[in-house]
Amino acid sequence: PEGDINPAQRELALTVNQSGLRGTLAEAVRGADAFVGVSVGKVLTGGMVASMNKPIIFAMANPTPEITPEEALAAGAAVDGTGRSDYPNQINNLLAFPGIFKGALKCRAKAITEEMKHAAARALAALVPDSELSPAEIIPDVFFPGVADAVAEGESPAFDARIEGPGAVRIHFRNVRNALAFLPRSGRDAGLEVAERLVGTYRYSRESVLESALNNPNLILHTVGCVASAARIERAQGAFRMYEEGFTPGVWRAVERLDAERMRVLSAFGCAPIPYLSACQFRNGADLSGDSLETFRRYGRENGPSGPSSLDSRYLTEDVPVGLGLLRSLGRASGVATPLADALFELAGALLGRDFQPEARTLERLGFESAEALRAFLREN
């Protein structure tokens, strides 16, 4: 009777029972495709399940489900899930809450929206590859790697921006296109859906997180540009625009040589060896058939930020250990020589009086014993 339900139950009934069905639970489930139980234990019987249409049963009352998996499956259920950890397909809020809130905090969302919940559900479902789907595994375990993290590796942010003061940021340039790679790769479609909703340029993907990481332009431009312009940076004390002034023909030849080393390493790990200028044209050029070097030069003239004002900037303190450190480590592991990356790594350390090796991102620090171990991981994920 309507008087026996509270306002929340009434709202739910109006949403899910639009046909106005009245009667017992047995009458309600007859011929139905699914049962979602969030009530009390032992209210659904095997006979009720048998009257349904090979249903999906989510019996989530805890610790005693509305029907046990053994009873539900024996009565003809196609799939069964419960809220308990000792049965397959545990449907628990632990699956979603850590990842949703971590993502919300990272992007500084002010509300948890229905779209976020839908995207999280799709991302969780995508963690189980099609080849492994079965009635006993339609969703990942709560401890499955990636449940709390849908890892997206981006090669460039959507905006080139600089902090100009408390609460003030200046956007110098908005990329035309942005690509992301996802780990595991099966999370790509759901991940891109979320990313594009946040920033519309994120509509493209790379094949692997390694490909995306090594397509970060900063490991090429910032390292070569800062080392080659070290005296100018220190003397100018901020009155220097590296993207506009720093890449003379000779410096650009060094950029091309380092880029060639990067592409050989990418090839050694089965990744597409995309030249820096092609990636630059993809991100920054409205016309993909245009002159890619001119696209870069125009960016430097019209949109490139000023600076760096000091050698002690992220252009070296981040991009040398994280970018060049990874590149040379992967090169050594795969038998690809990286002489310019090695030289820049040492020169940057000398300029700053700092040993970058203890903080370098390396194959070993990422948890891989060999190049083949990383290749296998990329194939599997």
Q: What is the spatial order of strands in the main beta sheet? A: 1-2-3
Give the overall shape, derived from the CA principal axes: elongated
* Residue fraction in strands: 5-15%
The description of the largest β-sheet is:
3 strands, parallel
Given as residue ranges, the uncertain stretches (5+ residues, pLDDT < 50) are none
Terminus-to-terminus distance: 52 Å
Q: Report the structural category.
A: mainly alpha
> What is the number of beta strands?
8
Helices, by number, come to: 18
Mean pLDDT: 87
Radius of gyration: 27 Å
Q: What share of the residues lie within helices?
A: 40-55%
Q: Helix and strand succession?
A: HHEHEHEHHEEEEHEHHHHHHHHHHH
Description:
- With 381 residues, the protein is mostly helical.
- Helix content is 45%, strand content 10%.
- It is built from 18 helices and eight strands.
- It has helices spanning 7-16, 25-29, 46-50, 69-74, 97-106, 114-126, 188-198, 209-214, 218-228, 230-236, 242-245, 249-268, 276-284, 292-302, 314-317, 319-334, 339-352, 371-380, and strands at 34-37, 56-59, 79-82, 151-154, 159-165, 168-174, 178-183, 202-205.
- It has a three-stranded parallel sheet with strand order 1-2-3. Strands 4-7-8 form a three-stranded mixed sheet.
- β1 (34-37), α3 (46-50) and β2 (56-59) form a beta-alpha-beta unit.
- The radius of gyration is 27 Å and the shape is elongated.
- The relative contact order is 0.07.
- The model has no long low-confidence stretch (mean pLDDT 87).
